């Protein structure tokens, strides 16, 4: 693994923690599915700032162009996160008999899945 990918994992882990933690807060006032989307947006803003500062600091691309591609890459990732989180929470985990911490388990798995596709997309388009 490259140093850049390891730094991406660290900054992504921080953004994922922000995502996960904010979902718990948002879920106090909204439905689970709405909270997942709001939390993803909160984590995405965190990820953009950290990625630009620490992972792809040598990017020559203008910030507004990086932000545009960052959003596009994350549209794919949010779709992955949403489908996996909601699918697990409403269908898979209940079918397996899981009753404790279902939203937390489902969302944690949903957040982890797009790590690799996001890295490739950001490296190739967002911060080239």
UniProtKB/TrEMBL annotation:
Domain GtrA/DPMS transmembrane: 7-127
Keywords: Membrane, Transmembrane, Transmembrane helix
Residue ranges of the TM segments: 32-55, 67-93, 105-122
Lineage top rank: taxon: Bacteria
Recorded coiled-coil stretches: none
Bilayer topology annotation: Multi-pass membrane protein
Cell location: Membrane
Keyword Membrane: yes
InterPro entries (UniProt xref): GtrA_CellWall_Glycosyl, GtrA_DPMS_TM
Keyword Transport appears in the UniProt entry: no
Family: Belongs to the GtrA family.
Name of the protein in question: GtrA family protein
Originating organism: Pseudomonas nunensis
């Amino acid at each position: 693994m490259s140093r850049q990918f390891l730094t991406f994992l660290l900054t992504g882990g921080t953004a994922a923690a922000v995502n996960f933690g904010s979902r718990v807060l948002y879920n106090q006032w909204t439905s689970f599915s709405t909270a997942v989307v709001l939390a993803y947006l909160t984590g995405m803003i965190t990820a953009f700032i950290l990625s630009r500062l620490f992972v792809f600091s040598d990017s020559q691309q203008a910030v507004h162009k990086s932000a545009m591609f960052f959003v596009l890459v994350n549209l794919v990732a949010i779709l992955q996160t949403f489908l996996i989180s909601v699918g697990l929470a409403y269908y898979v985990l209940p079918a397996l008999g899981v009753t404790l911490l279902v939203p937390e388990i489902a969302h944690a798995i949903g957040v982890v899945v797009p790590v690799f596709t996001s890295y490739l997309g950001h490296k190739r388009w967002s911060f080239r």
